[in-house]
Amino acid sequence: MDFNLHKAVTIKPGLDVLPAPITDEEYRDLMAGENRYLMTEANSLDELEATFFYDAPVHWQAGELLEAITSTRLQLSRTMRAFIRTLNQKLKGTGITAGSDKTGDVAQSGTREIGGAEVGRARNVNGLPVLPALIPLSDGQTISILFHSPTAEKRITNSDTLIAFQFLLNKKDVTHTVAPMSGRDMTLAQVTMKLANLAEKNTAKFQRAQKKKKALTDEINQLQADSDQKEDALSDLADQAATVQSQSADLEQQVSVIAAQADQLDEENERLQAEIDELNRTGGRSDAATVAVSGGQARALTDRLANIKNRMHIDGHVTLSNGAEMRQGIVDGEGYIQLTAPDGSRYQIQAESIQGVHLEAAIGKLFKAYKAGKAEQYLVAAAPDPAPEPVPEPIPEPVPAPEAELTAGKYRYALQMRPAGVGAVPADNAGILPRPDSDDPYYDYARHGIITYNEPLSDEQMRNFDLKLLPRDESFDFLAKTLASGPFGKYARQYLEMATSAPKDFQSTLKMNFQKTFPNIAYPLGDGTEKLVQSMIAALQQEVAESKPAPEPQPEPAPETTPEPEISEADKAANQAIDYLNSINSMQSSDMLEIRNARSSVREAIAALQAAGRFDENEELVNAAARHLADLLVAIQKQGVNA
């Protein structure tokens, strides 16, 4: 809305017996359009200052300005009390009252309660000091009045004139609905009557909107509280797990210490047992030890039979002190004890029960006979050497077939916004894969894993379920050919030169055109970007080769013409940036990730325009693209509120 200080409508405190009320048509006009929700959102002084002083452009010399109430800074309290008193008279019978009972309170932000209204700090807007005032209504709505001072220079003093020029009901500008009669004087009763009518007509919708907003806020707070509670519980579990792990480490250390001590005790016991056996064998004399004669060799045996039986019972075999080995086994259901001497001789004795007392008896019988050198009766005859078998020709091992890639379906899609679940993804999927490793080209897209299908999904399905197709490496050539014959085709030769002279600019241009041409296909990152760039260079080379005309007969020399100026690399990138910015205005999406990517591409386009020195001439195009993306974000926010 534009304002002109020289075309004013003055409101005078005269007598008006029958002021005109707000008509239903005027109220419907206020509730029409995309900004109708502003009628049901109460304003605050902080929001009013932030919107008017920072975001809303004010053109002081074009249009029409409503000069509603004239006062001075010193008399502002009396003026606001008179205005609120008149407004309350018009609100009588509606159950709504205006004004605050606070006086003189100074908030932390510097605001002050004056005459029942909350008055903010004066700020300079386009060279004129502007002062906001906010009147609260008892049903939660707010009426805001903006004053300007034509007499003040840099700051407003007590003697400076204040002129009210704009009215807002909640966050909606109702200035020209409250006082639409251009060029005519209006009474204060007319203005307050229209404001009272608007507040009364709007109170029911306002209360419903506030109730819905409160329910949504309460739900969000409850979800946040539940999330905090679960995070606290998870933190407690993590602390318990850390405590258990610490205790486990301590126990493992204690077990290691005890095991080391046990090993030392075992070694000491073996040493003492050897000494006892030696004493038992010699009776304290220094005679030679008892030997077992086997195959003409004699070595001392110092093993105790009890220890041998224990080891056989636990391990099934034992190595004697002279190097011989005893073991137990089963053949055709019958047990046996076998002793293999160091020279390779084998002695064997049958045992009736491999698990019973007969086993221990067999162990003792064979060991005693071997120790006394009388085990020849249990000697097992050596089998004759078998004839050498013919060595078969080596059969080449079959080469194993390459393993198939671990995918459940032919077409892969990234789960960007939510995990797979009933109603969250299209039906008939072929399988779900976990999120890939961090070095995968599609790691950033597949935040909740990858879902696969045997048949491709439509663009509408991918858009509705926030899915992105993940192209494989073998698809890069096809995608590159599509781009080379499409947006890159007109300047294929120049883009091919850019790939060599300015590879970073080429990658940025490739990414921007890829996302524009394939909005539902994920742009590969990391190593995938380099592979796509190589495919794109090959496709451009093929496009340039195919675009060369066939040789024709040499025509007669034509008069020389001035060659067209060669387009610089910066201008090429700027042309691509302009094409992309033009396409943004037709973009319709509810995907937050896609909108964020588009905003990133807009920043890259701005950089390209600045590098080419063409930003000023295309500033309006840049602003239009930025506003459109902001509108898409606001639409997503509204959907969340209305859900």
UniProtKB/TrEMBL annotation:
Species this protein is from: Salmonella enterica
Presence of the UniProt keyword Coiled coil in the record: yes
Keyword Lipid biosynthesis listed: no
Highest taxon of source: Bacteria
Ranges of biased composition (kind: Pro residues): 550-562
Positions of region (Disordered): 544-567
Defence against restriction A C-terminal domain sequence ranges: 409-470
Name of the featured protein: DarA
SUPFAM superfamilies assigned to the protein according to its UniProt record, in alphabetical order: Myosin rod fragments
Lineage, broadest ranks: Bacteria, Pseudomonadati, Pseudomonadota, Gammaproteobacteria, Enterobacterales
Start and end residues of each Defence against restriction A N-terminal domain: 66-203
Keywords: Coiled coil
Coiled coil: 199-282
